[in-house]
Amino acid sequence: MQLEKKSIYILITYIIVYLLPSFLNSFFKLSTTMIFNVQIIDYVLGAIILSFLAFHNMPHNLPEQHQRSVWQTILWGLLGFIVVIFLQSVILRLIAQMGGQTASQNTSSLLAIIKRYPLYTLAIVVGAPVMEEIVFRKVLFGNLATALHFMNPKVSQVVTALIASGLFAFAHADGHLILYGAIGLWFCWLYQHTGRIQTSMIAHILMNTLVVLPILMTTV
To answer: Which residues form the CAAX prenyl protease 2/Lysostaphin resistance protein A-like domain (predicted)?
Structure first.
């Protein structure tokens, strides 16, 4: 019961964090600079609050039954980052060969923001990855699999991995559903393999860092 209750709190908090900047803007007509400053604070605080909810008195779920050591967690996080970059490259190459669009409008928009407001990097490199791993991997994959106790544990994890990865892909809303779905499944596997959500967090943070690093270097 504690697991389900905390999961609901996390989902509600995530929705509030996600909608808060637009809500404030609709009431106070914020300037562009103010909107981005609000988003930075909102995402970083959101990551802190969700981390507290996720790690403070949260019972272990199915993927967390057998946890790797801290060093193994870090190692698999680094390896997971290398694999996800390779995975992206392969999928985008296949999309290009089939005549599809490989450019990500979502990524392009975020990079344009960072170029003008470098501090926005905090939202993309820290806030978003931490929150997304807690919501999509820990709650919608791990905790939901645990809640489906009437199913075989392995089957429930496969089902919830597909659900979580599908929602993760739709949440990014830039047309690359296969790419984001594959990334989501890989992060689910990393989490399940090590029993620690920090593993997929490391891979996710490094992935986002690699994307924004060239822009940051040009603004220095």
So the answer is: 118-209
